[in-house]
Design a protein that fits this description.
The structure is a homodimer. Chain A is of the alpha/beta class. Chain A folds into 3 domains: about 5-175, 3-Layer(aba) Sandwich (Molybdenum Cofactor Biosythetic Enzyme, Chain A); about 175-255, Alpha-Beta Plaits (2-Layer Sandwich), CATH 3.30.70; about 260-415, Maf protein, CATH 3.90.950. Chain A has 16 helices and 17 strands. In chain A, the strands form 4 sheets. Chain A has a 6-stranded mixed beta sheet, sandwiched between helices. In chain A, helix 2 packs parallel to helix 7 and helix 3 (about 45-60) crosses helix 4. The two termini of chain A are about 45 Å apart. The interface between A and B is large, with 69 and 68 residues. Strand 14 of chain A pairs antiparallel with strand 14 (about 300-305) of chain B.
């Protein structure tokens, strides 16, 4: 397999000014292209360090990717350093010169000599017009069939250039045949999945590997095939293994198409033509807010009430004083009343409610921090359940409650039994 | 100044399984400690690569920090590689052995030989008991008064170990005197601040520097003093410069104490004993949701209504059909009605409303994507204003609306004029 090194140029990443999200994104794409990433280096922008880092990367790798340092401030010295390293000149990339003129005109800004410097590329390289920004990207051939690719540091510019021009080139350069099987799961942790797949993982040949990409809401998994060439026997075997993995994980799979929980639920609501309303206490608007981030949700989402104070629970959501005094606001009867009332109030087909103790204060022995009651109701169905999520930072607690509520909504829409714990 | 290199060990970061938030956090802390970060390297976990990377880092730097590879799986080879590099043995760190027993007992899990391996540290090093996890951290003296610090890769464990044991040691090792002046700002972009501070920045001696740490909600800025020793003249001059910078930016400063906008608003509501209710359309629960993430907000936040559909706007928030047909849901009259009605309904002192076009669809020539109307009302005050935020991804649009709404609330609470654009 061919080796790649990613080099991030600029102080911002080193001193914590920005979090380097580019490298993680690139890392995943490079792996999918069939390349091997051995090292990622972030350096400050001095010519000496850029040149020595490029030289070392060239000696040990087949492909080098740099991000950063292609803009117009005095810190942007990536191109000059590369030209010095390779003993080449910088030349204007005419399509990018034209692009800069129209790009600046649209924004009513003047193109001066400083701006035009952005259109310079290393002599002998292939320039790529930036689809969403000003600075072009570059592909520079190096000795021994090696290549250097350069991108701006701004994430959306790097991503647009990579996807428009570079991914297919890298897939070809890798000279590998790769296939990928994506699974998105809920209700299972990374370590539970690792344990469940232990025998399966041991049965894999070295050209098939598993990747785990966990978050608080979702476990993304990928089975990767990476072989020398289009070997039909290996491809067939990979298909068998994909099926085997899907069978082992079948109780937890929510999507084979890289859909998030929010996207799956939004799609199912539309497919089944059902409307939704949400009454939130502990999640405080973040449950409905997570759905609002999905474009087109307005067709099925009527809205919600954030009943953070008990006053709103009794007045607007008609939770009886008796329930509050006998059971408390964090109780299954309260959650059920909240869901039933908001369904009536908003005239929706389905309603969800959440009430819990996010912490750090407010817990008791009976109801420790991390206790949450979640209810889901329709015209002829009622479900309510108490979950214990343990002591977490508020944001993680909220994310986990959202994940359980949406997973139960997904199951309700599919007619599957809801989560018992 | 002393040089540091951060080395991240493990494939997770390289193949995009996790985003490396540790390095950005460490980068900021190291700068505050008065150290100079030249390079950050992420490598896969092979002993050869770990050893060659450590050797190079040792040759070029004074302090090395590693994260990752201290757990109990077969991939966790950081300690063994370091021992091999330094030709030393691994020995049990007795306080961590004890800690592991109590840590596992609390979780009803057995301590076996494999688990105990986590308590091994490099001979001659200082071990640090992990305050929130299992694996200890280490400080290993190297030749020529250099040091190697090792942390687990899990962010909250790395941070707890760093703050409990290591930050003060590094501050001492840096042999520099550092001071820091923090400003949190809203209503100004990084490039606007750069332009505003251009002369100021040019007037700074090389021992004083500015750091910009932007996000969509907030611009964090820091002025740093970094001198050889406690030089009273430099400290006095730094104080003058802090005052000068604060004066230049005074219209935008929301906090000198590293408080976020949500924290400032939450504190002010409590101080002024005012309650809040929020009616949201385009932000869909994310405005109230951003406040709910602040612990203790329940004292002042009554809750909100997410009126995503027009039906809810008319029925629950009493927006007249006439306003909707004459002006539309994204209009100042609609925003004003929403805010007035939720204040009545929730019996709050203050109410905020948002209604806008998040996109990508739903825009028109008159009301393009990115148009938002925000209203704030009290018993005897009404404010409503339309803002044009341009075409952004939904999440960025939502964050920017939240920032404007909360900034206006802050100004209202302080009796300052609200934002005109």
């Amino acid at each position: 397999m061919k080796n790649v090194e990613i080099i991030t140029i600029g102080t911002e990443v080193l001193i914590g000014q920005v979090i380097d999200t580019n490298s993680a994104w690139l890392g995943e794409k490079l792996q999918i292209a069939g390349l091997n990433i051995n090292r990622k280096t972030s350096i400050v922008d001095t010519p000496e360090l850029i040149i020595s880092t490029l030289q070392k990367a060239f000696e040990e790798n087949d492909i080098i990717i740099t991000t950063g340092g292609l803009g117009l401030t005095k810190d942007d010295i990536t191109k000059n350093s590369i030209a010095k390293w390779l003993n080449k000149n910088l030349v204007y990339h005419e399509p990018s010169v034209e692009h800069l003129h129209s790009f600046y005109k649209k924004r009513n800004r003047e193109v001066n000599e400083l701006v035009l410097k952005m259109a310079l590329i290393v002599e002998g390289s292939e320039g790529f017009v930036n689809p969403v920004g000003a600075s072009p990207g570059m592909m520079i051939p190096l000795p021994n069939n090696k290549y250097l690719f350069c991108f701006p540091g701004v994430p959306n510019e790097m991503k647009a250039l990579f996807e428009t021009y570079v991914f297919d080139k890298l897939k070809k350069l890798s000279e590998r045949h790769t296939e990928h099987f994506h699974l998105y799961l809920t209700g299972i942790t990374e370590s539970q999945a690792t344990a469940l797949l232990s025998d399966f993982e041991n049965s894999l040949p070295d050209y098939i590997s598993i990747a785990y990409l966990p978050s608080y809401k979702l476990l993304r998994m990928r089975l990767d095939l990476n072989v020398n060439n289009e070997n039909q026997e290996a491809i067939q075997f990979f298909k068998t293994k994909c099926q085997e993995m899907a069978d082992l994980l079948k109780d937890y799979i929510i999507s084979y198409d890289q859909e998030t929980l929010e996207q799956v639920v939004s799609r199912l609501l539309k497919e089944k033509n059902k409307t939704l309303a949400i009454a939130e206490s502990c999640t405080g608007g973040n449950l409905v807010g997570s759905l609002v981030k999905i474009s087109g949700i307005s067709q099925v989402l009527k809205g919600g009430i954030v009943a953070y104070s008990n006053q709103i629970k009794t007045q607007l959501l008609k939770v009886s004083e008796k329930i509050l005094s006998n059971h408390g606001a964090v109780s299954e009867p309260c959650a059920l009343e909240m869901a039933k009332e908001i369904r009536k109030l908003f005239q929706s087909d389905i309603a969800i409610s959440t009430t819990g103790i996010a912490g750090p204060d407010g817990g008791s022995e009976q109801k420790p921090v991390g206790t949450v009651c979640i209810a889901l109701v329709t015209q002829n169905f009622e479900f309510v359940k108490t979950y214990q999520l343990g002591n977490n930072p508020r944001e993680i607690f909220i994310d986990r409650v959202i994940a359980i509520a949406l997973e139960n909504l997904r199951r309700l829409l599919l007619g599957i039994q809801l989560q018992k714990n």
